[in-house]
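Researcher: Going back to the complex we discussed earlier. I've cleaned up the inputs and rechecked each line, so this should be the final set. Can you rerun the prediction on the complete assembly and write out the structure?
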Amino acid sequence: GQQLNQSPQSMFIQEGEDVSMNCTSSSIFNTWLWYKQDPGEGPVLLIALYKAGELTSNGRLTAQFGITRKDSFLNISASIPSDVGIYFCATTTGNQFYFGTGTSLTVIP
Amino acid sequence: DGGITQSPKYLFRKEGQNVTLSCEQNLNHDAMYWYRQDPGQGLRLIYYSQIVNDFQKGDIAEGYSVSREKKESFPLTVTSAQKNPTAFYLCASSIAAEQFFGPGTRLTVL
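Model: Rerun complete. Updated structure for the full complex:
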């Protein structure tokens, strides 16, 4: 399957700090998705991107579709304790979806 | 209230027993998927189905079986042939380029 390289693997930040994570692939894709998974729960779709260069926000979350179509970025501004969880990037070829290995975020109050 | 339901949330079975995990969706999505997630790891595809009465193996199908007799239902059977079945199982459905997940079933084989 397709390999999506997601970094960093984990982050420990103070409440109120901004967070950045990214996802890269060796192939070009037409869609990038970002999910958040709380412990013991299923991933929840946060943002979907469909166009190179697109910048989309969902509250304090902002994601960008890289212009090369091989990468995507997720930023979280002014982090709060409930931002804790694992964030996954994903993409699709139509039939199947491919996922990054996740970024584990810990917010220290 | 549309969504994907998985039941039960926690499931315990003895080694050597087959067990079936339920997945139901009322989103009218054609495609459905099963993933396995182990601690600290990403999602691995077990089976997927693009349409009723048709399904394909994913990356780790050995020891698992599925059926797709109805659009809204995609049950997964973990057979005794699966060597390491204890894991968190996630069902998903998709429309166009977006995929949505159920709450998951944690299976523990004793």
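Model: Worth noting: Chain A touches chain B through 24 residues (CB under 8 Å).
Researcher: Good, that matches what I expected from the previous run.
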